[in-house]
Amino acid sequence: MSQRLDYYKLSPEPFRHLMAIEKHLHQSTLEHVLLELVKLRVSQINGCAFCLNMHSTLLRKAGEPPHRIDLVAAWREAPCYSDRERAALAWAEAVTLLPQHQVTDALYDELAAQFDETEIVDLTAAIANINAWNRFAVPFCKAPEIEETATA
Length: 152
What we know:
Layout: H1 7-10, H2 13-27, H3 32-46, H4 49-61, H5 66-70, H6 83-96, H7 105-112, H8 117-137
Helix pairs in contact: 2-8, 3-4, 3-6, 3-8, 6-7, 6-8
Pfam family, one: CMD
GO molecular function: peroxiredoxin activity
Organism: Blastopirellula sediminis
């Protein structure tokens, strides 16, 4: 499927603001890998091939073992995620799927046990931001930028 239009080129101003949020997040106390796992999970939920490719690539470049990237869709059953990562992934799913999930006090309490209040706001900003990116890439059919690798 070919890209329907180049949204970034046609109206760059909204994306400058999304990029400013990304810059803030990279300066926050949230770990890079945690942010990328959350972005990967949200992009899986939203079916965004462009973002799935980008965030799995960034995780590989950060040295994440393949199984932690491969299993993020089934993080509840996979023992390789920390309690902090699990709380973030649960929050990401609930915030992304608001109509289907309740953002309950119990879920918030699990999150608050792992993150301080500023980190909770920043994590929620990261989730909202990747949802925004997905909502442009998916309807306008932004294709993933695949890096071809040689096979042995």
